[in-house]
């Protein structure tokens, strides 16, 4: 063959053969209920399964060998790979499938790969949902050059530069704050902000970085592409740290926090190249439109590059004006209106008067007379009957929308759902033929968590046979069963008739509660429909009016101030143990591990245990999580009155009685105790981390001296510590001595008691 | 063996699709080399089977990259070679037959009908318009029924099918004899493709004169070779327009300057102003179409119009592997390639619309986007082109149809007509 003189993509020949590890599982549930029946990586994007985008991109970059790691629906993935010709020998890329059905995270998958001991050289780690046209060659060359010089350059993370907040919102992606060395591109700090949250107002960078480098670049415009070029040692690290689950959350932050080990991570910035990963329905929509707008060139429909045969058959798209892509053999009515950015697959019929815009229509679909399909994704064989309207929704294979029905934006209709005549499916509704089990506890990916259609419904005569048959749990990915379901449904199983109509089929699927995007207000930001303006409200764990503000603040200090986040961690750990009635021993262990994880000392823990105790005497602060709210008393005592003061102190006394031992465990020295007092002072003064938390800590300032007394009585703080604190404070400014003054009487009493004691000691000695 | 052949074709198709082979010259070379190796390896009992095989292979290759007309051109060249080879054989046959035993019938019919029997190969014109239609009808039927078409009594001159048939009768030992000559010719073709730029450059001194000012646009290897060749003998000045959004002109300007030419780089916007001062415009092309128009880098049409306005000769350098018998209005000409908009605008623009929607809240629903088409090619019509300089010399656009007749058989023009049928089955 002629040598390609300027191959646009690829690794120069003569270099070491490149290996890639592709994780064909998302390890999350964002694509439920679709992923119950088909793995996410086989979800078609503009007619082509996501997996093929990733594989084809790897292949065109000259990757020699790909290990495809399958967990859920492994059989389907394997079948697809076979059908699409990836497993053929003459294919230029060797695809090997690794199946492990037990893995629940990327970390476990990588450990499994490490155990198999197959990878000896640098490799590319991607997930199966990456759509990219980047040139791996340049990133790889830089990675290898760094590795030549420094064996500790473990990983190069590919990031897309110039990602604006609006862009993140469009992609439903997390915000990211990255600090790096602008010269070497070494990653110094990596902070994720949950998707949709505002960027924090502050970011801290350790000053010691400047001892190593002249300048540090802090960037908020980088977006992680989920493409990593890794050294083989990365696998070892995953094996060594068996608790690493997630590549970014655990591995990256782990390596960065253990800087003294010398391991380094680097960043490769993408400017013009495209790279994005389908994380949720929002990014599915955004990336689909990017594909149609050709940002992913050459991975666009009309290059017909992607499926080289197989179940989907070779494609024959051509580009027409206004980014309309059409395959051969379409039946388009004369009066059918095809709008901007649409893609229509083979065998589809669009009848007169129908309107299609901004949509991707799969093969063998039918869009009836005067039906309207806007911004939606119809996979294979979807039938939209006359007069129906579908906007900004995802309709899987075999979905039927009957006459004059409406599917509102943000809906997801899983395989073979039928929407009855004139029914209206409301916004952000998920429907599936699989019925959701009410009590599901497991969070594992794509595991069996649903009953077969008809199980939980009262069996009618006609359904008796089928529901008995169907009451055995269905195997994940058993499409045959799903195929059988609609026939059950026609006369048997009781679907949510109020939802899909008497002639419909389907159950409502509630997003899992543990998912961050649970509430419908938040769901709007991660759905197929275009995101509403502004930032999403935070997950509403509580219903206060000011929740939006405070929770946003919480998110901020979670990132900005490690101290505040540590405080929160301690108090949450404590509250959890209180709520669940753990033994003190366990609580101590938990706190200890937290202390080690966060590089804190005993005093730090003790301080926040105390403040949590104090807080427990008051009504729950607005920021407390709903699950712990019950631990707090209903109302605050009226501290202006003596009775109120006594009440407050009695509450504290009760708590101290229980927890003194624990506190003592964490107060190892006199200095620790002094620290504790200083914190108490801050707490009562609502300073530092306690500032603006909305906790009514100020109430304690009225009884400050009494609190000291209680601590003294409980032998939490020794008298020496008190005196030391008083001495430290004695020379402070007037405003800093407010609490010292309040405690003056107590201190005086303490001193007297001491002298008396000394006196008596002396007397004893004298005797 | 057939599997291996198919495997090789698929491998090249995959390379085409993945754009691992870019540019018409590389594509043409890859195609020619693959065809050479396939023809060498696979056995063919006669010319007809070889023709049909090459046609099918060629269609597959062309379908993998419809944009690159050079693939089809090379395939048509090879088909033409095979047909010519057959014709030669037939001529020999007739000659020997004449010597051996002149048929009675031949004697009676006389000169006129003999002239009909062996018309010289001609291109499409009014004189043989009827032949043309007949051929089109014959070739519209895929290769399978070709035999039937031959079997039908032919009132006209023996077309190539007859020729192929007669060649088929001359097979020996199960292999068609003419193949060796085809492979020789293919070797020649590959060699020709290798030297094509330098062959074009040979004509440089005839077209560039001393102290001239030459304007060029974008990056073209052919233009670079041409200018460098001319610079050996002449002293002249080059003005290079940068050719946004890919800015190939900047690369060309750098290379020319490194070679010691007087080079001026200008932005595209300055082309019109500059045109008054130049003596000639030289550009490369992606494909030369049957009507004498060219597909060339986007923006060239502007340059051609500016040249016309200032009466500056617009010269296109084009290797004959780019000569295509297709017309620009042909539905099978996939005319343009739309690349990623990232060359034109920033990716963040896509999302800015979301902010805009906020300000016009309530209007949302229909998604608004900034659309940034980024085409690669332009079509320059023949009336704007003064001259083509090819590896075999200079031609005017009106002469292109003669070149077509020289390199391709009329029957093969419609190669791509079956393209979709073959691909979709």
TrEMBL record, chain A:
Q: In terms of one coarse class, where is the protein primarily found? A: cytoplasm
Query: One Pfam family for this entry, by name?
Result: NTP_transferase
InterPro entries to which the protein is assigned, alphabetical: ARM-type_fold (IPR016024), eIF-2B_epsilon_N (IPR035543), eIF2B_epsilon (IPR051956), LbH_EIF2B3/5 (IPR056764), NTP_transferase_dom (IPR005835), Nucleotide-diphossugar_trans (IPR029044), Trimer_LpxA-like_sf (IPR011004), W2_domain (IPR003307)
Where in the sequence does UniProt note compositional bias of the Low complexity kind?
456-470
Which keywords has UniProt assigned to this entry? Cytoplasm, Initiation factor, Protein biosynthesis
UniProt-listed SMART domains? eIF5C
Q: Where would you find the membrane-spanning parts of this chain?
A: none
Q: For the W2 domain, which residue ranges apply?
A: 560-760
Q: Where is the signal peptide?
A: none
**Biased composition regions of type Pro residues, renumbered to the chain:** 529-540
Q: Where does it reside?
A: Cytoplasm, Cytosol
> Which stretches does the entry tag as region Disordered?
446-472, 528-547
- Description of how the protein assembles with itself and partners: Component of the translation initiation factor 2B (eIF2B) complex which is a heterodecamer of two sets of five different subunits: alpha, beta, gamma, delta and epsilon. Subunits alpha, beta and delta comprise a regulatory subcomplex and subunits epsilon and gamma comprise a catalytic subcomplex. Within the complex, the hexameric regulatory complex resides at the center, with the two heterodimeric catalytic subcomplexes bound on opposite sides.
Describe the family membership recorded for this protein in Swiss-Prot or TrEMBL.
Belongs to the eIF-2B gamma/epsilon subunits family.
Give the protein name, as stated in the record: Translation initiation factor eIF2B subunit epsilon
TrEMBL record, chain B:
Pfam families recorded? IF-2B (PF01008)
Places the protein is found: Cytoplasm, Cytosol
- InterPro entries with a match to the protein in the record: eIF2B_beta_subunit (IPR051855), IF-2B-related (IPR000649), IF_2B-like_C (IPR042529), NagB/RpiA_transferase-like (IPR037171)
Specify the superkingdom: Eukaryota
Record keywords: Cytoplasm, Initiation factor, Protein biosynthesis
Spans annotated as Disordered: 142-176
Similarity-based family: Belongs to the eIF-2B alpha/beta/delta subunits family.
Which PANTHER family does the UniProt entry name for this protein?
Answer: TRANSLATION INITIATION FACTOR EIF-2B SUBUNIT BETA (PTHR45859)
Q: How does it assemble?
A: Component of the translation initiation factor 2B (eIF2B) complex which is a heterodecamer of two sets of five different subunits: alpha, beta, gamma, delta and epsilon. Subunits alpha, beta and delta comprise a regulatory subcomplex and subunits epsilon and gamma comprise a catalytic subcomplex. Within the complex, the hexameric regulatory complex resides at the center, with the two heterodimeric catalytic subcomplexes bound on opposite sides.
Q: What is this protein called?
A: Translation initiation factor eIF2B subunit beta
Organism of provenance: Coccomyxa subellipsoidea
Species classification: Eukaryota, Viridiplantae, Chlorophyta, core chlorophytes, Trebouxiophyceae
């Amino acid at each position: 063959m002629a040598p390609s003189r300027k191959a646009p993509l690829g690794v120069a020949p003569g270099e070491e053969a490149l290996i890639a590890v592709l994780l064909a599982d998302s390890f999350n549930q964002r694509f439920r209920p679709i992923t119950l029946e088909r793995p996410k990586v086989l979800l078609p994007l503009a007619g082509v399964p996501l997996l093929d985008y990733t594989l084809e991109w790897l292949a065109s970059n000259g990757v020699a060998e790909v290990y495809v790691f399958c967990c859920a629906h492994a059989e389907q993935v394997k079948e697809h790979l076979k059908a699409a010709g990836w497993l053929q020998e003459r294919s230029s890329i060797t695809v090997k499938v690794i199946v492990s059905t037990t893995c629940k995270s990327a970390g476990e998958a990588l450990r499994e790969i490490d155990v198999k001991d197959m990878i000896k050289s640098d490799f590319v780690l991607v997930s199966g949902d990456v759509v990219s046209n980047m040139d791996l060659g340049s990133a790889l060359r830089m990675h290898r050059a760094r590795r030549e010089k420094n064996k500790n350059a473990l990983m190069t993370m590919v990031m897309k530069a110039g990602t604006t907040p609006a862009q993140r919102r469009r992609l439903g992606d997390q915000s990211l704050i990255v600090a790096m060395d602008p010269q070497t591109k070494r990653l110094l700090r990596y902070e994720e902000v949950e998707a949709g949250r505002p960027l924090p107002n502050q970011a801290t960078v350790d000053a010691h970085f400047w001892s190593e480098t002249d300048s540090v670049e802090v960037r908020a415009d980088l977006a992680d592409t989920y493409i990593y070029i890794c050294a083989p040692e990365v696998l070892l690290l995953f094996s060594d740290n068996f608790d690493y689950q997630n590549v970014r959350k655990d591995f990256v932050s782990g390596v960065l926090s253990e800087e003294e080990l010398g391991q380094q991570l680097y960043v490769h910035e993408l400017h013009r190249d495209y790279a994005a990963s389908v994380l949720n329905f929002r990014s599915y929509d955004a990336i689909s439109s990017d594909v149609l707008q050709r940002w992913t060139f050459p991975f666009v429909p009309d290059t017909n590059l992607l499926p080289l045969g197989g179940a989907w058959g070779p494609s024959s798209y051509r580009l027409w004006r206004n980014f309309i892509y059409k395959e051969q053999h379409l039946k388009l009515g004369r009066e059918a209106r095809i709008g901007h950015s649409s893609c229509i697959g083979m065998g589809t019929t669009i009848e007169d008067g129908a309107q299609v815009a901004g949509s991707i229509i799969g093969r063998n679909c039918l869009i009836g007379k005067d039906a309207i399909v806007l911004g939606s994704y119809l996979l294979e064989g979807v039938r939209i009957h006359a007069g129906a309207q579908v906007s900004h929704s995802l309709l899987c294979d075999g979905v039927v929308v009957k006459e004059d029905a409406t599917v509102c934006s943000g809906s997801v209709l899983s395989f073979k759902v039928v929407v009855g005549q004139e029914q209206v499916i409301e916004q952000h509704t998920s429907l599936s033929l699989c019925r959701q089990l009410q009590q599901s506890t497991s969070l594992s990916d794509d595991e069996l968590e649903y009953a077969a259609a008809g199980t939980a419904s009262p069996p009618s005569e006609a359904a008796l046979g089928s529901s008995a048959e169907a009451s055995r749990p269905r195997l994940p990915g058993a499409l045959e069963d799903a195929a059988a379901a609609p026939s059950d449904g026609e006369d048997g199983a009781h679907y949510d008739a109020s939802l899909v109509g008497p002639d419909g089929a389907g159950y409502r699927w509630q997003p899992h509660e543990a998912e961050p995007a649970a509430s419908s207000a938040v769901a709007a930001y991660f759905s197929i429909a275009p995101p509403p303006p502004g930032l999403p409200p935070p997950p509403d764990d509580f219903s206060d009016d000011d929740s939006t503000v405070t929770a946003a603040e919480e998110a901020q200090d979670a990132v900005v101030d490690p101290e505040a986040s540590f405080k929160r961690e301690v108090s949450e750990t404590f509250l959890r143990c209180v709520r669940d009635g753990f033994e003190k021993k366990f609580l101590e262990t938990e706190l200890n591990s937290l202390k080690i994880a966060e590089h804190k000392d005993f005093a730090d823990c003790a301080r926040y245990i105390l403040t949590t105790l104090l807080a427990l005497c008051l009504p729950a602060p607005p920021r407390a999580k709903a699950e712990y709210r019950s631990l707090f008393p209903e109302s605050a005592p009226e501290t202006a009155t003596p009775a109120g003061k006594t009440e407050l102190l009695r509450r504290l006394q009760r708590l101290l009685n229980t927890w003194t031992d624990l506190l003592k465990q964490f107060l190892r020295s006199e200095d620790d105790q002094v620290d504790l007092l200083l914190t108490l002072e801050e707490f009562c003064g609502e300073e530092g981390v306690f500032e603006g938390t909305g906790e009514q800590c100020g109430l304690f300032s009225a009884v400050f001296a009494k609190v000291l007394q209680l601590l003294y009585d409980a032998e939490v703080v020794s008298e020496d510590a008190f005196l030391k604190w008083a001495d430290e404070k004695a020379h402070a400014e007037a405003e800093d001595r407010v609490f010292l003054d309040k405690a003056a009487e107590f201190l005086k009493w303490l001193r007297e008691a001491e002298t008396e004691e000394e006196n008596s000691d002396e007397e004893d000695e004298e005797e | 063996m057939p599997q291996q052949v198919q495997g090789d074709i698929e491998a090249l198709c995959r390379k085409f699709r993945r754009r691992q082979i870019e540019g018409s010259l590389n594509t043409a070379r890859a195609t020619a080399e693959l065809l050479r190796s396939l023809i060498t390896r696979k056995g063919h009992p006669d010319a007809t089977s070889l023709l049909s095989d090459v046609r099918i292979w060629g269609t597959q290759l062309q379908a993998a990259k419809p944009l690159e007309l050079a693939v089809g051109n090379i395939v048509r060249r090879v088909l033409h070679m095979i047909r010519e080879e057959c014709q030669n054989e037939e001529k020999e046959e007739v000659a020997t037959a004449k010597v051996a035993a002149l048929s009675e019938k031949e004697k009676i019919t006389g000169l006129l009908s003999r002239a009909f029997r062996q018309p010289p190969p001609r291109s499409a014109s009014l004189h043989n318009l009827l032949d043309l239609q007949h051929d089109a009808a014959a070739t519209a039927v895929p290769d399978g029924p070709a035999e039937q078409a031959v079997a039908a009594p032919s009132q006209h001159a023996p077309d190539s099918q007859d020729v192929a048939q007669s060649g088929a009768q001359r097979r020996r030992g199960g292999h068609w004899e003419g193949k060796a000559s085809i492979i020789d010719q293919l070797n020649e073709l590959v060699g020709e493709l290798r030297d094509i730029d330098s062959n074009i450059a040979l004509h440089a001194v005839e077209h560039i004169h001393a102290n001239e000012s030459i304007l060029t646009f974008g990056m073209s290897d052919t233009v670079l070779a041409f200018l460098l060749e001319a610079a050996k003998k002449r002293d002249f000045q080059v003005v290079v327009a940068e050719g946004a959004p890919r800015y190939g002109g900047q690369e060309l300007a750098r290379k020319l300057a490194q070679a010691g030419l007087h080079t001026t780089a200008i932005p595209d916007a300055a082309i019109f102003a500059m045109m008054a001062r130049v003596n000639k415009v030289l550009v490369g092309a992606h494909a030369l179409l049957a009507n004498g128009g060219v597909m060339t880098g986007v923006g060239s049409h502007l340059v051609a119009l500016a040249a016309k306005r200032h009466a500056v000769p617009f010269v296109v350098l084009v290797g004959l592997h780019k000569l295509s018998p297709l017309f620009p209005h042909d539905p099978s000409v996939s005319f343009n390639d739309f690349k990623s908009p990232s060359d034109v605008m920033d990716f963040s623009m896509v999302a800015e619309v979301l902010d805009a929607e906020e300000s016009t809240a309530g209007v949302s629903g229909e998604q608004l986007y900034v659309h940034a088409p980024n085409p690669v090619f332009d079509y320059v019509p023949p009336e704007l082109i003064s001259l083509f300089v090819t590896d075999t010399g200079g031609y005017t656009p009106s002469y292109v149809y003669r070149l077509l007749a020289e390199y391709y058989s009329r029957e093969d023009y419609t190669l791509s007509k079956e393209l979709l049928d073959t691909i979709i089955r």
